[in-house]
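pasting for ref. prot 1 ->
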Amino acid sequence: MAGSLSGVRPPADHPAAPTWVPRAGEGGSARTGEPPRPVVGQDQSVPSTTFPHSGPELATRVRELLIAARPGWPGRAIYALASVPVGVLSLALYFALFGSVFAVIYGVGLLLILLVLAMIRGFAGVERQLAGILLGVDIPVGERIRHQPGVIRRVRRLVQSAGTWRAVGWFGARVLMGAATVTTWFFGALGFAYLGWGADWNALTALPLLALMVGDVVLTLVVLELLVRLAASVAPRLLGASPEQQIAALQHSGRRLADRNRLARDLHDTIGHALTASLLQATAARRTLTPPEGTPLQPDFARQALQHIETNTRTALAELDRVLTVLRAEDDGRDPAPFAAPSLADLEELLSGLRDGGLPVALVLDGDVDDVPLGVQELAYRVVQEGTTNVLRHAGTPLTVAQVARSGDTLVVRVCNERASSLESRPGPGGGRGLAGLRERAAAAGGTLSAEPTPSGGFELCATLPLAGAA
């Protein structure tokens, strides 16, 4: 009976059915072609328990374990346990620093001092991450010396930076914390061992001795908890940026954001004007090359319009390249190269292309504008650029006047157009970002900007800019 069932496999849903496990390298049953079945009760989500074979893999595993232990007391317990090896490492760094100071007389001490200081800053970064992961302490990163340009400048900042010497102080605190942790463990274990094995246990002393043993354990854990909380309160002051550095970083970030906003506005003004003017000139060239019957061709006008389209395109591409160069330089920590901002002298060139494209625009300069600060000149140029672009967008090609007048210490810039002409070739309406950006820039310079219709049915854009707002 048993022999007749030796080749029969019980059904899979049978409670006593054995699980078929393929041998290594076996992809399934060779006879039936069925895929291999998982072992009953095996957790398919369990990660591989193989030991990591590389440094980055080991660091990743350790970081995952630390992150998993972060919430609550497990993270603090691991941090307390790590105080001993970190304290030993800190003591070794101190001995290396003092030894390199004494080695100055042998000629290699200065290099050793720089090497030890660099190691201390590097380990301070590891300590910053350890405190952030296990204790949940937000420690702002201070100055990054490796981002400084040039070796000499990096060495100078390594020695002069307050963050370096605060990191040295932190490792001194870690030495004391490691010693306090070892002392707490030693006396806690000594008291526990004395109460457990050295005391006279009997029916009368059993409960008091048990209470003392529990109190010894609790006191040891409380002291370790206090040490960890002390480290959590001191770490941001010694491992993080100083208040002065944080304020400077915020100011630098604010200036960088303001510069990027200004670049975005300049790019919007330049490319928006170039595309609008190019569309106007392309439309005029198309109409010239396909005139109504009886009207002669005007190839010279079409050639001129195409030349202006080429010029506008080159200007827009140059502006785009300039902005990208500045942004890349800022991202790399380098000072961007200075560039020539547009001025009032460039207004005639700006408007000549619009005239050739069919917009009758006149430029009027009143007063002495030669000594107007360059910052105010650039803003006045942007007002005329945005005003004429809006005329093309919303009114077609009506008669337009761009006026720049100086009155004492104030520069008034106006762009005024008559009633809208034919809107057949008008570009699509803008999103209003140009005027909003101009209004912000005028307010930042201490001036005002208004945009409103005129009684004759046209529109006027007017900016009042104080010359003192150049800063």
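and prot 2 ->
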Amino acid sequence: MPGGKIILEILNPKQLKNNSGDPKDLSMLYTIDVLETKTIELNEGKHHQGKADIIQFVATK
């Protein structure tokens, strides 16, 4: 569909040191050299609280 969007918010390997949620399996985490990573504060329920290292991606078709 023209104008459609895909939005990804995925965890990167730095997340392994945080207690804000899973996965704790390196093979399930992502790195993308051309995008910027950021650190955010999660407040998304009991097991998703605190500092998280993420990659955000938005694309428009």
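The chain has a mean pLDDT of 86.
The CA atoms of residues 7 and 44 lie 18 Å apart.
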